[in-house]
Design a protein that fits this description.
alpha/beta; L-fuculose-1-phosphate Aldolase; seven-stranded parallel β-sheet; Rossmann fold; seven-stranded mixed β-sheet; 46% helix
């Protein structure tokens, strides 16, 4: 591992800036810890509000991510008060956290890390704690202390596993007192601590220890050939398996709250899944307790040959096993967490991980990928071991660990919902996609223009700061293409909850001048296209069994057709009638079907740009006057925007319309001739 410390840059920084710099350097190395794992601290002198000198400990706040942290993620505490606590023999978690909060010098600071006293009791100026893969690969073995000593030498303390909390802090402090020349400590099944006279030293010691451990493991890369290895099944077969399984998997794991499911089928994951002994190792427990907050204690292993019914039974057995685990170890007043698996291992197919959205599911996958590296490293030198079920429960249901979950902001209205939007790159489709993502939904944005769809998805993901959109090319008139889009959506998001059927075209001509090809093309896109998308969606939604919503973007022309717009109006009328029949047929499955009828939505519309001159001619006005003509003809004298249509769509997707189906909603500023009757 390369030491990226820039001493010239670091010398220019204030003590707090230097702590942030060091923390981010550690966080930038994925093999040192992920997504909030690990913590750092520094000690220095400062003056209090009365101008008196005081010693401070600045430590990372609970749940903050080393990779992205800044000054606001660190908490300042009075060091003298913290060090007095080293005289205590025992202390409850609640008492420890209360005392930490009393030592804060800034009441607006984040809650200090649960391992704050580890940092306070060590007298060195800088302390770093990481969950380095290479260190854990050595420590998570039957003879971990031996391998650590061989790889890293005598300068590191060995601390047998004990649950984080005051007892661990006390144990490390006692070991340090016996060996004050130590440079750090390896915490069995937990990670690495290093310290030094300054941040540069503690950081360098972390990098040096991890580098030595990596070299030690590399020198022993002599794992025997696995005769039971199996190649990945073809992509087409994998997609058939997922299409059969995922509706049932998502229904089963969404018993409490809807979940996303993401497939990871990279070469390293498939190689791991081809080795039965490593899969067996993964069922021994987590690589570090810190992982359990996201991965749970154990993965579920499935076989690509299993039927959907067999998969459901496997999921049920897993949840029953978790319930027994909870019953065996829980304390009075504790509530069982979601018992469903977060990681599912499927040899020849890949790894399925779950989360509230695709980003969280991918985070679970990334954490387990590092757990795999730890298991593989441990197997190279001896065998992988983990903590006991009782010890695992102690961390998984530890209130101080669960506190991190409370730091997440409240979920948005459409959080955990997954949808498909057709014609997404146009003005209305783009506004719908943006509105739904802003309200928490994950969306597949599909359009005939592949590049525009991908660019829209990229913009939506940047806006959300998470993976919330997938941009794909789709022709709604091609049945196979629709199925391929659903397959892509399943691999990223794992399911489907709603469809916004928006793709459409328009041609202008009176009936007597309308070519047959134009008529057929309008029906193909504006009627048959909606049918093909809806049919595929309904089949999936029924199999998934979680209900759903279909929203059709039709037109004012369904209710009040205009001259020279026969092909468009007739096809849109067919779309609206299709929606009514779908509502009749699918209410029993709690699939709601509703229609939005916009009028005169010009902003960002490629459709209107194509037909502006001809529609103006039909209305006997100049093309530049067309938008004003549409505004003035409605009762509210309102300009209808894409965002107005998006609001209507959001209503039909959300729980606000949970008891509405077969409904049409006009978004036209009020046209008397288009009043529903």
């Amino acid at each position: 591992m390369r030491n990226r410390w820039d001493d010239r840059y670091a010398r220019r920084l204030s003590p707090l800036e230097a702590l942030v710099y060091r923390s981010r350097l550690l966080g930038a190395e994925p093999t040192l810890g992920l997504f909030g794992g690990g913590n750092t601290s520094s000690k220095w002198e400062a003056r209090d509000v009365l101008g008196q000198p005081q010693s401070l400990l600045w430590v990372k706040g609970s749940g903050a991510d080393l990779r992205t942290c800044d000054a606001r993620h660190f908490a300042p505490l009075q060091l003298q008060g913290l060090r007095r606590l080293s005289q205590r023999r025992s202390m409850s978690d609640d008492e420890m956290m209360a005392l930490l909060e009393r030592c804060l010098t800034d009441l607006k600071a984040p809650r200090p890390s649960v391992e704050t006293l580890l940092h306070a009791f060590i007298p060195e100026q800088a302390v770093d704690h990481t969950h380095a893969d290479a260190i854990l690969a050595l420590a998570n073995t039957p003879q971990g202390q031996r391998w650590i000593r061989q790889a890293l030498g005598p300068d590191l303390l060995w601390i047998p596993y004990i649950q984080p909390g005051f007892a661990l802090c006390r144990r490390v402090f006692e070991a340090y007192q016996r060996h004050p020349g130590a440079h750090g400590a390896v915490l069995q099944h937990h990670g690495l601590m290093t310290w030094g006279a300054d941040g540069r030293t503690s950081f360098a010691r972390t990098i040096a220890c991890v580098s030595r451990a990596e070299r030690f493991l590399t020198a022993r890369r002599t794992s025997p050939r696995n005769r039971h290895a199996s190649a990945a099944i073809p992509v087409a077969a994998r997609r058939r398996t997922l299409r059969a399984w995922l509706p049932a998997i998502r229904r089963t794991i969404s018993a409490q709250r809807k979940m996303h499911v993401t497939l990871t089928a990279t070469p390293d994951i498939l190689a791991f899944l081809s080795q039965p002994r490593l899969i067996a190792a993964s069922r021994r427990g987590p690589a570090t307790p810190d992982h359990m907050l996201r991965t749970k204690r154990l993965p579920l292993t499935l076989s690509a040959a299993q039927s959907t019914g067999s998969v459901i039974r496997a999921l049920q057995r897993y949840t029953q096993s978790h319930a027994r685990y909870f019953e065996a170890y829980h304390a009075p007043g504790q509530q069982m967490l979601d018992p469903s698996p977060r990681v599912m291992l499927v040899p020849q197919v890949g790894m399925l991980t779950t989360g509230k959205d695709a980003t969280e599911a991918q985070m679970v996958a990334e954490i387990f990928r590092h757990a795999i590296a730890i298991m593989q490293g441990a197997a190279r030198i001896e065998a992988y071991t983990s903590i006991s079920a009782r010890a695992a429960f102690g961390v998984e249901y530890w209130p101080l660990e669960l506190y991190k979950l409370s730091l997440a902001p409240p979920e948005a209205e459409l959080a955990r919902e997954i949808g498909l939007i057709t014609g997404a790159a146009g003005g209305i489709g783009r506004a719908i996609a943006q509105h739904l993502v802003d309200h928490g939904a994950s969306v597949v944005v599909a359009d005939l223009r592949a590049r525009d769809a991908r660019q829209l998805a990229e913009a939506l993901n940047r806006r959300a700061g998470r993976l919330r959109a997938l941009g794909v090319a789709m022709d709604v008139t091609r049945e196979r293409g629709i199925e391929q889009v659903l397959d892509q959506a399943l691999e990223i998001f794992g399911g489907l909850d709603f469809v916004v059927s928006n793709a459409g075209i328009a041609d202008v001509a009176s009936i007597d001048r309308l070519p047959l090809k134009t008529w057929e093309r309008s029906l193909a896109v504006n009627a048959t296209g909606h049918f093909l998308v809806a049919r595929a969606a309904v089949r999936f939604l029924r199999a998934q069994g979680l209900g759903g919503a279909l929203v059709f973007i039709a037109s004012k022309n369904v209710l009040a057709p205009g001259r020279d717009f026969g092909a468009y109006s007739a096809a849109k009328a067919a779309e609206a009638q299709l929606a009514r029949v779908l509502a009749i047929e699918n209410g029993e499955a709690n699939i709601r079907v509703n229609v939005v009828h916009p009028d005169g939505v010009f902003d960002g519309s490629g459709l209107w740009e194509a037909i502006r001159a001809e529609r103006a001619k039909s209305h006997r006005i100049a093309p530049r006057a067309l938008e004003e003509h549409y505004r003035k003809r409605n009762l509210l004298q309102a300009r209808v925007l894409p965002e107005d249509v998006a609001e209507a769509v959001s209503f039909f997707i959300s729980k606000r319309s949970a008891k509405t189906t077969g409904c049409l909603l006009t978004v036209d500023g009020g046209l008397r001739e288009a009043f529903p009757r």
